[in-house]
Amino acid sequence: MSTPPPVVNANVPNHLVWAILSTLFCCLPAGIVSIVFAAQVNGKVAAGDIAGAQESSDKAKTWAWVSFGLGLAAVVIYLALMGLGMMSSGMNSY
Predict the structure, then answer these.
(1) pLDDT computed for residue 91 by the predictor
(2) What UniProt keywords apply to this chain's record, in alphabetical order (predicted)?
(3) Are 12 and 41 spatial neighbours (Cβ–Cβ below 8 Å)?
(4) What global pTM score does this model have?
(5) Contact of 66 with 17, CB cutoff 8 Å
């Protein structure tokens, strides 16, 4: 008689919501990487690979933060360039 696989009750967060939000609002390429890792978490938990699920969870979180950081950097650079442009156009009016 074969025994059923053990029931794994691991609480490994997949960070899928943060991955999707960082993809939509921050940086598309890094956000997609985050979504891919987030999508792997539940499958690995179901297969009993808790260490692999935790690793994918950590990578999903890291890439979501990378996406957020790149998006924030892009906004800061954009605002700085707009400010410099406004300053230079104000100086030319004299």
Answers:
(1) 66
(2) Membrane, Transmembrane, Transmembrane helix
(3) yes
(4) 0.80
(5) no
